[in-house]
Predict the 3D structure of the following.
Amino acid sequence: MSNHFYALIMAGGVGSRLWPLSRQKSPKQVLPLVGDRSMFQGAVDRLQPLLLPEDVYVVVGEEQVELLKAEGTGIPDRNFVIEPAGRGTAPAIALSAITLRKHDPEAIMAVLTADHFIGDAEGFRDVLQAAREIAVQGQLVTLGITPSSPSTGYGYIERGHHLTNANGYAAYQVVAFREKPDLVTAKHFAVSGRHSWNSGMFVWKVSRFLKELSRTMPEFYQQLMEIEAALGTPAFDRVLHEVWQTVKSQTVDFGVMEKAHDVAVIPAEFGWNDIGSWATLLEILDNDAQGNVIRRAEHLGVDTSNTLVFGHDRLVATIGLHDMIVIDTGDAILVCPKDRAQDVKQVVDQLKQTGKQQYL
Amino acid sequence: MSNHFYALIMAGGVGSRLWPLSRQKSPKQVLPLVGDRSMFQGAVDRLQPLLLPEDVYVVVGEEQVELLKAEGTGIPDRNFVIEPAGRGTAPAIALSAITLRKHDPEAIMAVLTADHFIGDAEGFRDVLQAAREIAVQGQLVTLGITPSSPSTGYGYIERGHHLTNANGYAAYQVVAFREKPDLVTAKHFAVSGRHSWNSGMFVWKVSRFLKELSRTMPEFYQQLMEIEAALGTPAFDRVLHEVWQTVKSQTVDFGVMEKAHDVAVIPAEFGWNDIGSWATLLEILDNDAQGNVIRRAEHLGVDTSNTLVFGHDRLVATIGLHDMIVIDTGDAILVCPKDRAQDVKQVVDQLKQTGKQQYL
């Protein structure tokens, strides 16, 4: 079982910028936003035949685990790692890593998410296979996406010298992780030939990651070891909940990757997109001659272009709309310009503040 | 019963620019667009105590007469004049005029409509009383509205010399009826001191109107006399339907008023507005601090101003909307900028062309 390959799918969160479709009881991951299958099903499907469902782990909150188990992906219930509360990606991955280490100390793990769009599944698996071969050599491998635009919505990875090749892909030393840049900087990055988007996907030996974690987040690592000591004992749940209350939130990028040694990046293209908002769906879904994307609505458009209508099996008539978003979920309607799609989160925040639980 | 005063309310049409709220089975007239009472109820209510329901006549199409009778206005069923088909305002008024002449040859009639907003009902009745006194002297009186803006959506009436005063109002000779002007002309009219909006409301002796009709529309007048000859006989329905098939469409403005003698105008202000589109409702209904008008919706607005939300008891969230219209009727949703409100008719036309009867 030496160097067996596993995937961890991070599936927490609601995806509040996809409100009113995403709700606490129907988070983004279980929505069929792209095809007929949910985002979570799609994330599992596209791994086969490289990774079978029994080799896929999932980290998720208590309130969503049953929803995901019910998705019929074939992932065994024991592979669901339950976070007592969201603490960012570093603790989520670390908790999964000790779970996986107990199952297989030699494990190689790919850290993936449930809410990305990937157009070329075969190309994606090829990159994962390449990353696995490089991770076996001890590198912490990040998947970089060759920029198709000067996006200010993603972090960037700057690469240095060429390290090695695997499965037809080149891997490079990582020089720096760059936070989401301003537009001038993004325009520079997009054409530099040295920068990739940070996809948030990683491949590494579990043992190598945990070693790096002990160096970069020593305080959290002590907490994690308390939890690991209780793994498989009757005290596990109690210890996990107690320790987790004192764990600080941290991202794996900032907490680990930016300070880590031997970090490699594989620049790749496989039609990747972070479905972060309705504006992204307008970009990636099939559109008609006017650039409109119509899903589940009977749409009648007069002078309407580049508009997303996500409906509820009823008529939506639009006149003079351009670059707009109209979402109808039966109990709620959202209307906003495409370039305000990020602000949907403000609506969700206001609904929380005013206690409108029925819409959350 | 000499010179008794009657009102005719023109209540035909669907009001397709108020789709999706206005439908064939719930036309504009029966909608509570302004207050809690329907437009038609409001039109009858505001005449009291000047005119009681038994003195109010209604001209309407066959498909809508039962809807209006069911509105509980107190108007006797015999006062409903049924047009076999819409032929414009001249034939509709003429058919009502002969009905009224049979009931009372000395009748004074006010021609009104069911789909106007009138903010000052008492002032409106005062103007009607003034117009009645001037109509008794033989004038065809039009009610002119003192322009509050250089509107290009209304026709204008140009006045000449002062004729007389009645009930505190001045009446002037009419020099010309002007079609809806372009903006430059409208700006001139709005400040000339000689132009009023043409409200489409008139007051005259029935006998005087019919005499003028015989001169200005002689061909139609002959047809009308055939119908009048059958009034009160068993042949009436057959004759009316047969003759009506050959009647040409004509407006009373173009067919009669522009060519008539002794036409007077009473310039007045009583908070009048023709509720022709959603944009008008946005103007006349009470708005909040951001200029938004919210009716029957639970609205959550982020950076939203001058926007009309007409809802269906569900949540409507808007972000970054300004001067927009969002209408939700349960089975259909309309979204358009305020300045495209006239084009709602295009949606209705397309629904007709594609046979989407359930939305008409």
